[in-house]
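Milestone M4 deliverable, item 7.
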Amino acid sequence: MATTPSSTASATDARRLLGRRGEEAAARWYARAGYDVVARNWRCPDGEIDLVAVDRARAIVVFCEVKTRASTAFGSPEEAVTVAKQRRVRHLGARWLAAERASGRPASSVRFDVAAVLVSRGSGPLDVTVVEDAF
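Output delivered:
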């Protein structure tokens, strides 16, 4: 079956919507765990960080890569965070810290997490698993 421009666009829109739902679910997870989500989809010329969360009491900055999937047919969401992606997120985390240094946000430690989000039956409930200190 050939794809048409409109079917390709609607598939892309569906993936974007799924990704947004996953990021929102991950942000809620961090908020419930006592973190302040201080940035979503933070961008610089080198790329984008999905979520930046801060635990002010412990002075921890968390950079989170969110991976959302509708199934595990091609592996788990966390398996999609390759070594190259980890390297990029570390680099972007350093860029974020440099940009935020002037704001006076205290950070005695930094952590890199992966939020693996699976959706049940299309638009059903989301299952969020956060792998803390994933890399």
